[in-house]
Write a structure and sequence with these properties.
Blueprint (H helix, E strand, L loop, with lengths): L1 H18 L13 H4 L1 E7 L5 E8 L6 E5 L9 E7 L2 E9 L4 E9 L5 E9 L4 E10 L2
Antiparallel strand pairs: 1-2, 1-8, 2-3, 3-4, 4-5, 5-6, 6-7, 7-8
């Protein structure tokens, strides 16, 4: 008697939970720039240089990050990059008192602890083509 009386109610509740489940990605509100923020060890493959950079979220925009000590320019020098999911684009810009032009792009690996970058550094005399790997320290 108990089974017959409550079976339709249980069936309706079960079907409602199936139909009212959201299909929206729960990670939509995640600011992926947060994955980039922190201190990173940079190893430039073709120069052999290794040094730390600090990446901070640019609070004045919704897409930019700031990379400090980029290409060992100094801890007060920053290069801006646009983040789109796990990819970043370094648009052409002047650094070091407008004396050096930089541009490039990179991709963060799914483990979110490694960034592979390719960029160009032009001081007006020499154009350096750099391949670098950033490894997250903290």
């Amino acid at each position: 008697m108990f089974k017959i009386k409550y079976t339709p109610i249980i069936l309706i509740v079960f079907l409602c939970t199936l139909f009212f489940t959201s299909c929206v990605d729960d990670n939509e509100d995640v600011d992926t720039r947060e994955y980039f923020a922190g201190t990173w060890k940079c190893k430039e493959i073709n120069t052999g240089f290794a040094y730390n950079v600090i990446i901070k979220i640019d609070s004045t925009t919704q897409t930019y990050i700031n990379i400090y000590n980029f290409h060992q320019f100094g801890s007060n020098e920053k290069v801006r990059a646009i983040v789109n999911d796990l990819a970043l684009d370094i648009p052409s810009q002047l650094a070091c008192n407008n004396t050096i032009n930089v541009r490039g792009s990179g991709i963060m690996q799914n483990n979110k602890t490694t960034i592979n970058l390719d960029y160009f550094v032009n001081d007006g005399i020499t154009l350096d083509t750099i391949t670098a790997v950033y490894t997250k320290l903290y």
